[in-house]
């Protein structure tokens, strides 16, 4: 699988390199180690280790480019997860500015087009009209597996198609319309079913049958709009409609009013129904929507120091939950107090974290603490949890950095849980000539 995944990348890079001009190569390599040791309340402990290597590469020559993002994972202990895997998150070629109006992508790519989203193996294109005041996007392909490995064999049973039209013709506004059609293959299974032998007594027997249903199709349409007025008022709204169930899937809106340069008021509202596959066994049950309404206030004492407070209500079928949060944000850290009560349980938490650059940014130490008290129902015992973190970022050069962070937590279930994360990053941008042409 690893050779099959890397081979297309090498072919695409060779295509870029075959031109007469130099190529611009950008890349980032990230090596991460993650280990934790957990002591339960009995006194026994277990230690785990995971290692990750990610590679992000792009090669550009004029309007043509190729892009890749791969992640490999490996276990240092045999009793946690799999032995190792390679995930290909994207691997595609782009031809930009075709006819000064069209961009074309082919390969494995992430899709963000209004209601349409996900990762596909396929084709996407966008075209700009009226001096880029109208943009039309379209995409089609097969949905990538959750493992991000090979291409779907039955791609026609896992289609992901859609498009979006976005316009800025209305002054100070952005309006979008989108559509998504997605199918998901249902895995066949064997189940016992009763059948008749066909004799005069109509004798019934139980026999295994292969159940193979058709792919489940999901169809949604969406409209969203953003409008701002004189940097004082901003409004955003979105509406998603489920074409299969013929009902509202989601509705949301938000508003922000800058009363003064220091004071701002915010409001948010969300209506959401459960995301149930059409014609699945779960669709026969009653589906109830939830709504969330939240209001907030922000005040800036200085450009780096701002205070905030928010209060929200989550409404279910016949009950509600209340959430709140308040705190201070600065350029070097955050202090917050938040909580909830009602149907979703009771939670209160206090947290503080911060960082401060030293030696002209060469060393950036960080620290944090969090305490939480929670229970899921009035009859349950209140649990408490304490978490600490300590870390640092070291940047000896513009192209290399090292991040180290240690975490420690204790609660009723674990006497202590210690974790360590180490990450090394190297990135570069070079103009090269892979076939010996002169580099300008």
Characterise the protein shown here.
The radius of gyration is 27 Å and the shape is globular. Strand 20 and strand 21 form a beta hairpin. With 440 residues, the chain is mainly beta. It has one helix spanning 2-17, and strands at residues 23-40, 45-61, 64-75, 84-98, 102-113, 116-129, 134-143, 159-167, 173-184, 189-196, 204-211, 216-229, 233-242, 247-258, 263-272, 290-300, 306-315, 320-330, 333-342, 346-355, 363-375, 383-397, 400-410, 414-432.
Q: How would you summarize what this structure contains?
A:
The chain has 440 residues and is mainly beta. 4% of the residues lie in helices and 66% in strands.
Give the N-to-C terminal Cα separation. 39 Å
**Number of helical runs?**
1
Annotation, overall tally of beta strands: 24
Radius of gyration equals: 27 Å
| Shape designation | globular
Low-confidence runs (pLDDT<50, min 5 residues)? 16-20
Strand content: over 45%
Q: How is the biggest beta sheet arranged?
A: 22 strands, antiparallel, barrel
pLDDT averaged residue by residue: 87
Classify the helix fraction into a percent range. Answer: under 10%
SS-derived structural category: mainly beta
The succession of helices and strands, N to C, reads HEEEEEEEEEEEEEEEEEEEEEEEE
Key attributes of the depicted protein:
440 residues, mainly beta, 22-stranded antiparallel beta barrel, two-stranded antiparallel ribbon, globular
């Amino acid at each position: 699988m690893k050779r099959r995944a890397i081979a297309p990348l090498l072919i695409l890079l060779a295509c870029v390199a075959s031109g007469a001009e130099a190529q611009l190569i950008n890349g980032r390599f990230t090596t991460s180690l993650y280990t934790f040791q957990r002591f339960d309340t009995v006194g026994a402990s277990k230690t785990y280790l995971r290692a990750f290597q990610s590679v992000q590469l792009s090669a550009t020559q004029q309007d043509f480019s190729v892009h890749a993002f791969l992640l490999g994972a490996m276990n240092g202990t045999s009793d946690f997860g799999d032995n190792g895997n390679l995930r290909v998150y994207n691997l595609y070629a782009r031809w930009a500015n075709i006819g000064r109006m069209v961009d074309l992508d082919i390969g494995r790519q992430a899709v963000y087009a209004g209601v349409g989203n996900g990762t596909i193996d396929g084709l996407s294109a966008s075209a700009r009209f009226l001096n880029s005041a109208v943009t039309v996007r379209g995409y089609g392909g097969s949905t990538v597996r959750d493992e991000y490995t090979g291409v779907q064999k039955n791609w026609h049973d896992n289609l992901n198609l859609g498009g979006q039209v976005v316009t800025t013709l209305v002054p100070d506004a952005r309006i979008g319309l989108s559509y998504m059609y997605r199918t998901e293959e249902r895995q066949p299974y064997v189940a016992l079913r009763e059948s008749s032998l066909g004799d005069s007594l109509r004798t019934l027997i139980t026999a295994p049958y292969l159940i193979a249903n058709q792919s489940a199709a999901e169809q949604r349409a969406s409209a969203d709009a953003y409008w701002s007025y004189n940097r004082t008022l901003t409004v955003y709204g979105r509406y998603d409609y489920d074409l299969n169930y013929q009902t509202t899937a989601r509705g949301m809106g938000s508003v922000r009013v800058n009363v003064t340069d220091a004071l701002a008021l915010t409001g948010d509202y969300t209506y959401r129904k459960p995301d149930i596959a059409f014609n699945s066994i779960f669709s026969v049950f009653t589906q109830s929507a939830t709504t969330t309404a939240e209001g907030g206030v922000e005040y800036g004492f200085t450009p780096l120091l701002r205070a905030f407070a928010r209060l929200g209500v989550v409404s279910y079928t016949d009950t509600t939950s209340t959430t709140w949060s308040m705190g201070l944000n600065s350029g070097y850290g955050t202090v917050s107090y938040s909580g909830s009560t009602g149907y979703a349980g009771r939670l209160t938490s206090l947290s503080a974290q911060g960082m401060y650059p030293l030696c002209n940014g060469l060393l950036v130490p960080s620290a944090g603490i969090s305490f939480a008290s929670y229970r899921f129902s009035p009859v349950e015992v209140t649990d408490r949890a304490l978490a600490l973190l300590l870390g640092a970022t070291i940047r000896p050069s513009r192209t290399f950095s090292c991040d180290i962070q240690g975490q420690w937590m204790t609660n009723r279930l674990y006497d202590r849980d210690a974790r360590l994360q180490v990450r090394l990053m190297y990135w570069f941008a070079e103009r090269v000539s892979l076939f010996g042409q002169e580099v300008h």
